[in-house]
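URGENT: need a sanity check before tomorrow's submission.

F., can you look over the Enoyl-CoA hydratase/isomerase family protein record below? I want to be sure the sequence and structure line up before it goes out.
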Amino acid sequence: MSSDVGSGPILLAVEGGLARITLNRPARLNAFNAETAHVWAEVTTAATTRGDVGAIVLDAAGPSFCAGGDVLDMAQDTGSGALLTELAGVINIGIRALTESSIPVVAAAHGTTAGGGLGIMMCSDYAIVGANSRIGSLYANIGLTPDLSVSAQLAHAVGQRRALQLVLQDRLLTAREALEWGLVAEVVEGSDAESTAAAVRARADEVARFWLSNAYGAYGQAKRLVRSQPARSFAEQLVEEARTIGEAIETPDAKARVAGFAAASARRAKPEENA
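Structure tokens as predicted:
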């Protein structure tokens, strides 16, 4: 099944179990304005509640992944604190949809990711960037504070001290620094910005299709267990793990894979018969 939604600021395409969410305001570095915020909430909710989606690619058009909020729009149209708080709440609907779902998400975060874009990237469970990518916070540069899950997720991703280094300085990490910090999973090379972006997207597709071609339901539940752990005590997490693996073993996919693994192990263990 293939379906596409819209030609506006965020696109959704679904085919063969893969949902592709594309930030689509390249002229504004995919920064979020009011329209983008509402479409983001709708698209992410749609992608994570469909029964035919087993993996999600979070992509972006143009030279950058996401510059966070559209500062020009803030200055002109959304400068009131109440409205900015409301829009952040709308975007947070999509952030929660992706992070709390049991569908693994890979980000193709080529180019620059800054401000709230950092929170959008961290919605993914596996982030791939280009060798030319730069990643940072930069909120304080314009007198603002972190939003869109940056303060909620950054310290969990890289540790509190490193998180403070980003939010208390105007520093942009290089791709290699982001990899070293554990903020991203892979760095992809290219001959120029355009080829690097294409290579990042291609690798993100490979990762998503790896999930789809294997036990994507189990990968999704593993993602959910890790993502949701902070809400539970250690003892509660052990109970949740036990419950989840008990449910998993009853699925047709797991039964077939366990049987296949057992049969292969038995063949390897059987001594060869000599003629």
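My own read: The chain has two domains: 2-213, 232-269. The longest strand covers residues 10-15. If you see anything odd, call me.
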